[in-house]
From TrEMBL:
Domain of life: Bacteria
MF GO annotations: DNA binding; DNA-binding transcription factor activity
Organism of derivation: Mastigocoleus testarum BC008
Limits of the HTH arsR-type domain: 1-95
PANTHER family (UniProt xref): TRANSCRIPTIONAL REGULATOR, ARSR FAMILY
Family matches, as SUPFAM superfamilies: Winged helix' DNA-binding domain
Keywords for this protein: DNA-binding, Transcription, Transcription regulation
InterPro entries the record matches: ArsR-like_HTH, DUF2087, HTH_ArsR_DNA-bd_dom, HTH_MetalResp_TranReg, WH-like_DNA-bd_sf, WH_DNA-bd_sf
One Pfam family from the record: HTH_5
Protein's recorded name: ArsR family transcriptional regulator
Length: 198
């Protein structure tokens, strides 16, 4: 999403975040109205309606045409369609979070479920281990992705080596192996019991 589109989206929500303006848009979607008519329909004062219309005009959401001494307002369907097409699509909405740290939640999960080990001669290469397997599938996947990184891509491991590596992080390697396979993070050749990262 461009900076200009982001500003348009921001203005849109600021302008539309008002009950009276939403009602005006709803009325003008069905018919042309003067300020006087809108004021009567919404039970508002005419200067208040004019203020709301000026905000809607800033987004080009309403058009105005003179008729004698009266100005008639109508919703600009084309402008609404343009905003919808240019801004209100999943890809554009998703791009709003470009400056968000997408790894922050994963880091939080890891901090919750990993504990530091006391350094000894035998475990100086494995400073962290799992204190538990999360019940939540999404959190469990974060842990599994962290664990699968303990294996090299393109290397085939016998089951005994897989067990040995996993037991450094969690005592029940069988559960972890099955989870890694179930989540397509590792593959297993059943006859030879050889494992590898996908």
């Amino acid at each position: 999403m461009t900076k200009e589109q982001f500003q348009t989206l921001l203005r849109f929500f600021k302008v539309m975040g008002d009950e009276s303006r939403l009602k005006i848009v709803g009325i003008l979607a069905n018919q042309e109205c003067s300020v006087e008519e809108l004021a009567a329909l919404l039970q508002l004062k005419e200067p208040t309606v004019s203020h709301h219309l000026s905000k809607l005009k800033q987004l080009n959401l309403v058009t105005m045409r003179p008729e004698g001494n009266t100005h008639l307002y109508q919703l600009d369907n084309q402008a609404l369609s343009t905003i919808s097409r240019d801004v209100f699509v999943p890809e554009k909405i998703a791009s709003l979070v470009v400056d968000i740290d997408k790894k922050a939640w994963e880091s939080k999960v890891l901090r919750t479920y990993l504990v530091e080990e006391e350094k000894t001669v035998t475990n100086h290469n494995h400073k962290q281990h799992l204190k538990d397997i999360p019940a939540s599938r999404k959190k469990r996947l974060v842990i599994l992705k962290w664990l699968v990184n303990k294996f090299e891509v393109g290397v085939k491991y016998p089951e005994s080596t897989v067990d040995e590596i996993l037991k450094h992080y969690y005592p029940d390697s069988t559960i972890i192996k099955e989870e890694l396979i179930a989540n397509n993070l590792m593959q297993r050749e059943r006859e030879s019991m050889i494992y590898w990262r996908t």
